[in-house]
Amino acid sequence: MESIISSPAGVLAALAAVTSFFFYLEKKTGWKVFNYLPPLFFIYLVPVALSNSGVIPAKSPVYDFMGSSILPVFLCIMLLNVDLRATVKVMGKGIFVMLLGTLGVVVGAPISLWLVKTGLGPDAWKGFAALAGSWIGGTANMASIAAAVELDETSLDFGYAVIADNAVYLVWLPILLASKNYAAWFNKFTGMSHERMEKMKAAAKELMIDKGRMEMRHILYLTFYGFAATALATWLANMIPEVPPVFSTSTYKILIVTVIGVSLSFTRASKIPGSHAMAMALVYLFVARMGAKADLSDLSMSVFWFLAGAYVWIFIHGAFLVAAARIFKVDVHTAAISSAANIGGAASAPIVAAFHNPALVPVSILMALVGYAVGNPAAILAALLCQWVM
Question: What percent of the chain has pLDDT over 70?
């Protein structure tokens, strides 16, 4: 059946319209529903409906271009914002809590998959790998890992990963927000000192992340860095022998782009204004593209097995997080933000930080960006472990 909108320009315009509409709605209405169902949720689901109803196609040349080029471009541009030194300065031991939370995601992936694998297909490990990418860095990492392990975005396993990501988010976010009510008990449990809390607040106030006003030349700079990194990564990846099933040319490409982006974050490229805004705009456009390619017509009972594994998995992450908070003696605010930086990325970490302690909003963004940096290699490790237990 011929789609109503079929030209590459028309398809891209439709995706941009969906993406911009929900951010406009969030800004214009201020509806609280967006705190629990962020625009990202609708930006994925609406294109699913549009492509499965014949409004836009499920296959288009524009999707192929976005997958091969736009994905590594926004990954590189996003990583320019990583500031490891500033994050460590403000959070101190809190950064180790976040990283141990990341370890909880990596360890929890094969454990939870092993528990539910009888109800899933042979490629379910790829879906768990994609979800690991989302839970360590965010949506950009989910897309990157899906490409790295060659998970078809039209497959049920990818659809399950997206469904699980949002279903768990609806439960986990309220838990992170409600944890503020137990601050006194939690801080006593971990042995958090009042002096450390005051020092962290003071350091956070000194944190400056405003790079100035974005101008036309900055867009050109960022475009150059993004496509140059993509071209270099593609060239280098094609020279490295593949080691199936995890280490493909696509895997190498994503890892190399990650290394290039983090390396550039230590240069003057990190000072270019607008890099985060430009990267996130491309990320959300890419999410709409993922939704447009999804085919959930064959949805089966396997989705419940996947969901069950995801809920076991998130509580393994939570156990690692609480243990880390106890080991490093941090407060409940740091622990909650550390989890949000992992599970929700840059979209959720500021929400949790604003609810717990508004002074920590800037550093919550930095912590989420650190998640972007470690997300790809850590999620590929999770993919290896998941493939091993299948």
Answer: 91
